[in-house]
Design brief:
Blueprint: E1 19-23, E2 26-32, E3 38-42, E4 51-54, E5 57-59, E6 62-67, H1 71-83
Antiparallel strand pairs: 1-2, 2-3, 3-4, 5-6
């Protein structure tokens, strides 16, 4: 699924995807885990299989409630990841 067809405020659901996101000229595949967490695969990066993941995000006061990020928030997470990449190695500093 191409995220460009989804509004910025859309919240992908657990198990949904893969969703392709292009951020700062780089291609990522987003996969939502069944537990509400997410995995990002850097498809256009220099290191095959490299990426990051996280979550699920929990709501304060209710350990069972989950906060699902919007497409815009996923893009921000990817942009932050890219800003921390060492250009010489293609890995996090």
């Amino acid at each position: 699924m191409n995220a460009d067809a989804l509004p910025d405020d859309y919240r992908p659901q657990p198990g949904e995807g893969p969703i392709t996101l292009i951020v700062d000229g780089e291609v990522f595949t987003l996969r939502m885990r069944p537990d509400g967490g997410d995995d990002y695969y850097w498809e256009s990066g220099p290191n095959e299989g490299y990426g990051f993941g996280g979550g699920p995000v929990r709501t304060v006061g209710d350990p069972n409630a989950k906060y699902l990020m919007t497409i815009a928030e996923h893009r921000t997470s990817i942009s932050t990841f890219l800003s921390n990449i060492n250009p010489g190695t293609g890995y996090l500093d």
